[in-house]
Amino acid sequence: MAQHVTTVLLWLLVINLGIAFGAGLYEARVVIPSWAVLPPRTWPNTGLLFWVYVTTVPLTLLTLANAVAAWVDDGPRRYWWLAAVGITVVERVATFAYFIPTMVRLSGAVDVSDAVRTGLAQWLLLNHGRHVLTLAAWLAALKALSSPPR
Predict the structure, then answer these.
(1) 23, 40, 49, 81 — which has fewest CB within 10 A?
(2) CB of 18 within 8 A of CB of 55?
(3) Distance of alpha carbon 115 from alpha carbon 124, whole angstroms
(4) Do 88 and 39 form a contact (C-beta atoms < 8 A)?
(5) What's residue 112's pLDDT?
(6) Cα distance from N-terminal residue to C-terminal residue, the chain
(7) Closest residue by Cα to residue 92 from 20, 146, 141, 5
(8) CA separation (Å) from 50 to 44, 54, 137, 149?
(9) 65-74: buried (b, 16+ CB within 10 Å) or exposed (e) per residue?
(10) Residue 10 in 3-state DSSP?
(11) Per-residue model confidence as pLDDT tens digits over 35-89
(12) Total domains, the chain
């Protein structure tokens, strides 16, 4: 039974990372660039409309659960699994330390100023690194999933 639970946790991590990667790329390429000319208070709060349900809560909880499952796993997939979790932890820390607070601050601005444009451009530039982390974690999780459990 425990083997099935850990496999389900790993599957959920793979699925969630894949969704986060694809949705993150879409948002960065299609959604956010159009905000540069809009008053910040009119920006849709994608954090509350989408991300809270996809990554903020689920990916964070899945990362913690998978950290425990990967740590106690003794099969060949363990190291790839731990790598996926470790990379995701780095991405989650960056998200909570920089990306969420910065977007909240930017979206609270009254009008489109040079500071808002610069802040948004920096956020988008640094977000590329977050995409790389998510992709690396996703690939490591896929490798773990494709490895034999024991």
Answers:
(1) 49
(2) no
(3) 14
(4) no
(5) 86
(6) 14
(7) 20
(8) 10, 6, 21, 33
(9) bbbebbeebe
(10) helix
(11) 888 899 999 999 999 999 999 999 999 999 999 999 999 889 999 999 999 999 9
(12) 1
pLDDT for 1 beyond 60 = no
Q: Distance between CA 12 and CA 69 in Å, rounded? A: 13
Rounded to whole angstroms, the Cα distance separating 97 from 24 reads 18
* CB contact set of 62 (below 8 Å; sequence gap of 6+): 9, 12, 13, 16
pTM over 0.90: yes
The helix/strand/coil state of 147 is: coil
Closest CA to 101 of 58, 39, 34, 56: 56
- The owner of tokens 């731990």 is 82
Question: In this structure, is the dihedral angle defined by the CA atoms of residues 2, 63, 60 and 135, taken in order, positive or negative?
Answer: negative
Structure tokens at 16: 């969630």
Nearest to 38 by CA among 112, 141, 140: 112
Residue 141 and residue 14 in contact, taking contact as beta carbons nearer than 8 Å: yes
Complete DSSP assignment for 52-103: IIIIITHHHHHHHHHHHHHHH--STTHHHHHHHHHHHHHHHHHIIIIIHHHH
